[in-house]
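Lesson 9: reading folded outputs for more than one chain in a single document. The general rule is that every protein is listed as its sequence immediately followed by its structure tokens, and records are never interleaved. Here is the first one.
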Amino acid sequence: MLFLVVALLLLGVVLGAVAHAPLTVSVAAGLVIALWLGIFAVRERHGRRRSTSAH
């Protein structure tokens, strides 16, 4: 429960910062985060395929 409260608090801080940032900065940050999450997803998928075939 505490984790949810902290997550919502951080979300509010981030959304407040985005509301005051210029649109180009917000879009650039969003693209960087999307790229990071995409790379993470590909690495996780690749790692799980490798580890499940070994078992």
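And here is the second record, again sequence then tokens.
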Amino acid sequence: MAEVKQIKAAAVLPESLLMEIQKYVQGETIYIPKPKEAYGKWGSQSGGRKAVDERNAQMRRAFKRGRAISQLASDYHLSVETVKKIVYTKTSKHGSS
């Protein structure tokens, strides 16, 4: 789990806003989430998305070269249905083909 960064409210908030917040919470820790637009897509920071896209591209190439769906499922430890979804998709949602 990510470490939570703590900042003193008085150091970053205007006094009028701090006084407004104090009407609801005093002496407690509150979490203010990022706006939804600030979050990256799944795997964008860890590289997980890129790894999955590369794996899927490899599977599509192997399928085009004649590798059987059942063998791809075994090779990649995926279900046959998942492999079908991958190989029958023209391009991925994330830019790889």
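What the second record shows: The mean pLDDT is 86.
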